Amino acid sequence: MDWNDKEKVAKYKREYQRKWRKDNPDKIKQYTKNYREGNRKTQRRWKRNNPEKVSISAIFYAIEDRCSKPKTDAYKYYGKKGIKNKLTLEQLKRLWDRDGACLMKRPSIDRRNSKGNYEYDNCRFMELSDNIKRAWEERRLSNGE
């Protein structure tokens, strides 16, 4: 084979790739799965570094997922304990405006009563760091420390 002929080399590569794909379907599935997982991690990292670009609808669907989809990692802390999402997207937008979440560095949705559902009167937006501190305080108090 003449390796200096670019057309022949390109044709050879295409044939080799087709044969490899045909012979290795399991490897392709694994590569695709790894790529998607890596892409999810990149998306999470992007959201963490660009919190001002996280949309209200993304927050809404995250709440929906953790309350109603058993395959979600957070479901065991929310949906499995009976916490339901009774917020609509419009109510979440009103909450966003009411609490001034657009002015926060990293807004986080918080339930005043942590055992209650996601309802308009039970929810508020607050800084993520304050929300984390509040959750730790609640856990510490409930453990009797």
Characterization of the model:
The protein is mainly alpha-helical and 145 residues long. It contains five helices and two strands, in the order ααααββα. The model has no long low-confidence stretch (mean pLDDT 84). Strands 1-2 form a two-stranded antiparallel sheet. 57% of the residues lie in helices and 7% in strands. It has a domain at 1-49.
Topology:
Blueprint: H1 6-23, H2 25-49, H3 56-68, H4 89-99, E1 107-111, E2 123-127, H5 128-142
Antiparallel strand pairs: 1-2
In short:
The chain is mainly alpha-helical and 145 residues long. Helices cover 57% and strands 7% of the residues.
List keywords for this structure.
mainly alpha; 145 residues; 57% helix
Q: Termini distance?
A: 76 Å
Largest sheet: 2 strands, antiparallel
Shape: elongated
Work out the helicity level: 55-70%
Radius of gyration from CA coordinates: 24 Å
Mean model confidence by pLDDT: 84
Oligomeric state of the chains present here: single chain
Strand line-up of the largest beta sheet: 1-2
Structure summary, number of beta strands: 2
Strand content: 5-15%
The class by helix and strand makeup works out as mainly alpha
State the low-pLDDT regions, or none. none
* H-E order: HHHHEEH
